[in-house]
Amino acid sequence: MSTKNATGSARRTELLELAYAYTLEHGLANLSLRPLAAATCTSPRVLLYLFGSKDELVRELLARARRDQLQLVAEVTLELRAEVDAREGAGPAGDGLDDYRELVRRLWRWVAAPERCGTIRLFFEAYALSLRPYPGPWRGFAEQSVRDWTEVLLGAHPAGSPEQAAVRVTRTLALLRGLLLHRLAGELTQWARASMEVGATLRASAIRYADADQLAAARALKPLHERPMFGRSVLLFDHVDRAKLASIGDVRRPSIADLFVAVMSNNTSQRQPPSHEVPARQGGAAT
After folding, report:
1. CA 20 to 30 Å from 70, out of 63, 159, 206, 269?
2. pLDDT, tens digit (0-9, with 9 covering 90-100), for 90-143
3. 245 near 207, Cβ under 8 Å?
4. Which helix (H) or strand (E) covers residue 105, if one does?
5. What is the dihedral of CA 113, 271, 245, 226, to 10 degrees?
């Protein structure tokens, strides 16, 4: 590489990093070269010379944001894999699904941290812009992001039914994205507690009662939350043995809406998120 090209490449890399920091604070949708140049101590002419066009600069910034995400995932995955290998070397292998849940929790804790609000805002801005009828330089960002994260989560999922894994990964990704949107719009104190919902949802289950005395038996197990629904009671439990719940009625998985209602209703509680849901007829009537 010639000295001139090497210098241009180094300056291009430097300006890309400065521009990325700028967009984390100011966003991409209304990006203008003149204020960007002033903030990065250069000129619009230099930016155009090094990047070719504003659209090409935007594409480079989106690629930079994507590299940030993939680096995060790689670091968290390698850290957890090292812990799993060490644990398995010292004793029996653990539950692969538990390792998957732990990866999801760690990813959530990283992306939901207050210092990464700018990164998350930029991600959703680019995601939405890429879905417009004429997305321009943002074209393909949403689709590629979904593919990247799906591939990572499928790679961390334990062996088993491909259909089950696809369903769980799709639900995980949708819930992560939904919680991040609320994280940006809501108070930190609410969503710090809701963050653990990501892991809890993956193992949630529920019970339908058959006898009049089963509602009392369910309440004796100290449900995390109870609410009426269509003449019945919906009870959510945290870390109650599934076999014990199954002895009371038919077990099923609660919906994300049920979990959301429980978390928001208990937003002043310090309890853990629900892992089981038990619907029963209001007042203990038989079903």
Report:
1. 159
2. 554 555 677 787 888 888 888 878 888 888 888 898 899 899 898 888 888 899
3. yes
4. helix 96-111
5. -110
User: Could you tell me which residues come within 8 angstroms of residue 5 by beta carbon, excluding any fewer than 6 positions away?
Assistant: none
Provide, for the chain, the percentages of residues in helix, strand and coil under a 3-state DSSP scheme, each rounded to the nearest 5. Answer: 65, 10, 25
| Domain tally, the chain | 3
Q: Are residue 128 and residue 220 in the same domain, yes or no?
A: no
Q: Which of 172, 198, 224 is the last residue of a domain?
A: 198
**Do 151 and 238 fall into the same domain?**
no
Q: Sort strands 225-229 and 205-209 into parallel, antiparallel or unpaired.
A: unpaired
| Residue 154 near residue 146 (C-beta atoms within 8 A) | no
Encode pLDDT of 225-246 as tens digits: 777 767 667 777 766 777 887 7
pLDDT of residue 187: 57
Both 116 and 235 in a single domain?
no
| Segment holding 236, helix H or strand E | strand 232-237
Which residue, 243, 250, 237, is CA-closest to 211?
250
Do 269 and 138 reside in the same domain of the chain?
Answer: no
Helix (H, G, I), strand (E, B) or coil at 136: helix
Q: Is 205 left (phi over 0), alpha (psi -120 to 50) or beta?
A: beta
Going by C-alpha positions, the residue among 185, 180, 205, 196 that lies closest to residue 258 is 205
How far, in Å, are 90, 153, 157 from residue 101 at the CA level?
21, 10, 9
Quick one: CA torsion of 6, 8, 14, 17, rounded to 10 degrees?
A: -110
Is 264 found in the same domain as 170? no
Classify burial at 216, counting beta carbons within 10 Å of its beta carbon; exposed 0-12, middle 13-18, buried 19 or more: exposed
